[in-house]
């Protein structure tokens, strides 16, 4: 089993920044692709950013240039630095882990709420 625990969410004003962290434990493999997905009220869960074990990344068009995904394989951590936040970034953000770059993995965290509002 793999456990993923997110932290760092909160309330921020438009234009502000937040940094999300995800701590992985259990049977996590260093080769796993790690990712961030989000789900806004009434909408489907969507990809935000994913990162391979070799640090190759892929971002949703809506966050390119504003969000940066990184990982520390030694610590089994993955991060999402979010800058220039917009109200439409408001959602529950979920950490994800799995073996493939093209599809979400089977392991999910419990989610952390990000609210962008003035």
How does this model look, in words?
The chain is mainly β. It has strands spanning 2-7, 10-12, 18-26, 33-39, 46-51, 57-59, 67-72, 77-82, 91-98, 107-108, 112-116. Strands 2, 4, 5, 6, 9, 10 and 11 form a 7-stranded mixed beta sheet that branches. The protein is globular and about 40 Å long. The termini are far apart.
Write a concise synopsis of the structure shown.
By secondary structure, this protein is mostly beta strands. It contains no helices and eleven strands. The strands form two sheets. Strands 2, 4, 5, 6, 9, 10 and 11 form a seven-stranded mixed beta sheet that branches. A four-stranded antiparallel beta sheet has the order 1-3-8-7, with no helix packed on it.
Key phrases:
single chain; seven-stranded mixed sheet; four-stranded antiparallel sheet; globular
The shape is: globular
Profile the largest sheet: 7 strands, mixed
In DSSP terms (H or I, runs of 4 or more residues), the helix count works out at 0
* Helix and strand run: EEEEEEEEEEE
Structural class: mainly beta
The count of DSSP E runs of length 2 or more, i.e. the number of strands, is 11
What is the chains' assembly state? single chain
Cα radius of gyration in angstroms: 13 Å
Q: What is the share of helical residues? A: under 10%
Low-confidence segments, given as residue ranges, are none
Average pLDDT across residues?
95
Q: Note the beta-strand portion.
A: over 45%
Give the terminus-to-terminus CA distance.
40 Å
């Amino acid at each position: 089993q793999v456990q993923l625990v997110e932290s760092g969410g909160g309330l921020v004003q438009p234009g502000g920044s937040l940094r999300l962290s995800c701590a992985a434990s259990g049977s996590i493999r260093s080769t796993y692709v790690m990712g961030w997905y989000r789900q806004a009220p009434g909408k489907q869960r969507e990809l935000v950013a994913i990162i391979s074990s070799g640090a190759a990344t892929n971002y949703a068009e809506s966050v390119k240039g504003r969000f940066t995904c990184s990982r520390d394989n030694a610590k089994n951590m993955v991060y999402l630095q979010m800058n220039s936040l917009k109200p439409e970034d408001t959602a529950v953000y979920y950490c994800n882990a799995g073996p493939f770059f093209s599809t979400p993995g089977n392991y999910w965290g419990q989610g952390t709420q990000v609210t962008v509002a003035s």
